[in-house]
Design a protein that fits this description.
Strand order of the largest sheet: 1-2-3-5-4
Strand content: 25-35%
Helix content: under 10%
Oligomer: single chain
Number of strands: 10
Order of helices and strands: EEEHEEHEEEEE
Distance between the termini: 29 Å
Mean pLDDT: 88
Structural class: mainly beta
Low-confidence stretches: none
Shape: globular
Number of helices: 2
Length: 214
């Protein structure tokens, strides 16, 4: 969960009271390319001059993301062993690295980055090995707290799969946090082709078979 937005990185709250850091270059290929253009003073794809990157346009406090641990190192601090620095990445190809096309089922969660912004929705990149698979998120599925007109290319969302196209190449997505895991609407995973579908962020139906004292 996003706990702090800095100029060049994002702090994510992790289990066991840990904090990981997400560099601006570990978000998506689109954002990394923009960072490079800004650093080199180049123009954008439409010929205009690139502006400095404001990460508050890409993330918001409290946002949930699926993070991949890139490295863990100890920072040297005088007089003690130092604290552990955890570097993270939210690139879809890492966050979804265990998923195949056949693992994309309704009510599971995938990480996706904005590939392009269209009139009625967003074309999303899932980072799967099958390049033909793309996500689509309707402007109505972005969530009440996000202004669709201000969503930039390269932004990343943890998304609920709401539908699959007939050929399996178009995956309908929702980033509306009020839908994911909604018990009344049945937005939780009850069946899956493989165990790989059960990734962090996915709500599942379980049956308690035993309760022990320990």
């Amino acid at each position: 969960q996003v706990s702090r937005i800095n100029r060049y990185d994002i702090a994510l709250s992790l289990p066991n009271n840990l904090t990981g850091y997400l560099p601006v270059t570990s978000v998506s290929d689109t954002l990394t390319a923009k960072v490079k253009r800004v650093a080199e003073g180049e123009g954008s794809d439409d010929g205009t001059q690139e502006q400095d990157i404001d990460l508050t346009s890409y993330f918001f406090i409290g946002q949930y993301l699926r993070a991949h641990v890139v490295s863990t190192e100890r920072e040297a601090i005088a007089g003690n062993k130092g604290k552990r620095h955890i570097e993270l990445s939210v690139r879809p190809e890492l966050a979804n690295s265990l998923l195949k096309k056949t693992d994309l089922v309704i009510n599971s969660m995938v990480q996706a980055s904005v590939r392009s912004v269209e009139d009625h929705g967003l074309i999303m990149e899932l980072g799967l090995k099958d390049d033909a698979v793309r996500g689509f998120m309707s402007s109505k599925e972005i969530g009440k707290s996000i202004d669709f007109s201000r969503v930039p290319k390269g932004a990343v969302f943890l998304c609920l799969i709401t539908g699959i196209g007939s050929n399996g190449n178009v995956v309908k997505l929702s980033a509306d946090t009020e839908k994911a895991g909604n018990l009344r609407k049945g937005n939780f995973l009850t069946d899956a082709p493989t165990i790989d579908c059960y990734l962090p962020g996915t709500a599942v139906e379980i049956l308690v078979s035993d309760i022990t004292k320990s």
